[in-house]
Batch of 3 targets.
Target 1
Amino acid sequence: MIRDINLVRDQHRMCQTLLVVNLDIVLLREGMGRQALTMIAKACPRLEKINTTGLTIGPAGLREIADRVTKLIHLQLERALEPVDPELYRIVQGNASLEKLEISNNPLTGKGLEAAQLKVFECTDCDNLKAEPLANTIRRQTEMRSLQIRLCKGVIGSG
């Protein structure tokens, strides 16, 4: 965990111009897993890409992203602890430039996608994703170029 206040200040200064962050399993070994999104959102408001692969995420970190980060182009969410539809809705609503959304191993139902205008949407292993909210979201898309839904039992059935 970061303990040196000078290091935190240096990271904050660096993050003011940082555009891409890949959060990896390394953060878990350093004891920063649960707080990583919150820390990144507070320090790096100009992010254009966030990749949470290798990190288990929860609503609190995503609320910080929704409150502070407004220039996202690409968001990759993996392994949520619980449904994050309200937080995702706020992220999508607050980031008009969001073009690509990748979600995997997530209990998302699809209601958080209602405000989305995406060019690329990929969803894998999201068994709670429901066909109706997804279909409504797809119907509203005007510039979608790629749609991939894989292993989402709520959409494709269990057989």
Target 2
Amino acid sequence: MTESGRRLVAGGLEVYVRERGDGPPLLLLNGIGGNAEMWGALEDRLATAARTIVFDAPGSGRSQTPRWPLRIPGYADITSALLDELGYDRVDVLGFSFGGLVAQELAHRHAERVRRLALVSTSCGWGSKPGTLASLALISMPFRYHSRAIYERTNHFLSPSDHALVDRLPQLAEARLKHPPPLLGYGYQLGAGMLWTSLPWLHTVVAPTLVLAGGLDQLVPPANGLQLARLLPRARLQVLADEGHLFVLDPESESQAMLEEFFTAAEPEAAPVWATGRSVDDDETVEAAFAAATGCAQPHGVLSDAYRRSVLAARDA
């Protein structure tokens, strides 16, 4: 049963937050415009072994929309302030999609607060391989979350695997439509994600990190998971071959067991998902994956790749 949440002030903004279960604290950071109800079965499962912390990010759900746009570091600082309000010094962190950007920034700016990190369906921002034009168009339509009719009529922009998932689990749409994001708040999050990158400093993140990517993800192509696993100093990658972008919300996805294993193991290396995960140890593997990725939106793809090459060239100089 879902426990009721509460509103706290963090970083000068009123934030809706909910805690469940007993065990090591585990913070879940959602995708763009997402709300706490969307975690569903994953929150239920993880709360049996951890003290889960879910919240609506500023500008989404039941949380306050900031007066001025935030950048990703601002979202990370508010998240850190929320942990202060809740009384947690150190937590495990799961970041999904947009939440993965905030999770990386939190692990960078507040490294002492992050014990373990899981990055799901996410990327380094600028320097990553962008998704298809249709997938990028879909996330630029926040008004679809304010109208069931528009939501249903635009689902064809989803990848086939995600479309099938949404059709099979109508509760995902119900959770999304129950607390739609304010249009201004959604725009702030979208703008923050578009202008952000972790590429220059990702190699400094010290938390052991599990990277999960969907092999059929059209919004965040799986090549980005390879790049994250290559740049993070202590990481393992699992690519779920037949999954799209939303797989972590699917109670039938093996990703939920993987995350439970990773966060509950005495040490990361003791988790089967870590032992069977891929260690990406060479740049050539990433280059080959980027070259093989097709359908990426242009000119964004060309500009992002040029930025990636310039940052990596400076690193190797």
Target 3
Amino acid sequence: MSGFKLTTLALALLLCPFLTGCEKQPTPTETSAAAPAVAPATAPPPTGTADAAADTPENKAIQRRAAEATTWGVPAVNFEMLFAAFKQAGGDWNQVAYWSRLPDWKNQTLTPNPDVIYLIPFYDTRSGPVVLEIPAAEGGSSITGSIDDGWQAAVEDVGPAGVDKGKGGRYLILPPGYAGNIPTGYIPLHSPTYAGYALLRSNIGTGSTADIEAAAAYGRRVKIYPYAQAAAPPETRFVDVVDQVYDATLPYDARFFERLNDFVQREPWLPRDRAWIDPLKTLGISKGTPYKPAQREAVDRGIAEAKAWLESRY
């Protein structure tokens, strides 16, 4: 029995350094002398570090609002990029971007179909109503699409599936708050934004070269012009972008809020969006004043956060 007790005691002494509770307990003096100067786990990072700057209440608010504003502003910014690509190609408001052949990889718009001729008339009603003429369907030729506001919400469908039922028509796009007379012979459309576009497809038949050329020629019968010139409409300008890289992809960087500011400066506030007026001010966007970017790193983190969230969902 005594041998067993000695063996157990020796084993305990050997294991003691590895067991909790059997170390030598330091005296109060030893504790104060040897304790390292380690901040509590909940303490903020040291002042002056990048992490400390990111952790301030103001920058946290900027990051949070940047993430939310990015998610909210995607349709508007995508529209701005769509028009910016047209401007780079030499186009302008109340003109038409079109692809004279079937699109390839250079068409960097959102989810284009590879088997139609695309036309995108861009309208701007700041100077008054704008007329968009859609030709009547003929045989296998027809225009399919919709007229959209700046938020990319459809104002009305056109063509055989739209309000003109394939008979063609003159669509009168009215600016926000328009209260003037509406002339006869037009299909009035009240756009909630001053600027917008129509996404139109000129359908082809078999896909032969002759059919593609015929679809492109038929598409060029679309017209857009200010209503003020309706008595003698000017010739519609078409800009062929088929051989250009038409990049309308969303920029998840500093350009995002530059484009969003362009949209906010031009367009009226919709009742649903008025809650964004003050949050956008903290990001440097305020109607009627120059754009003043907020803390760049916080904004970039917010944009990246929104991008990750959107990609995880869609």
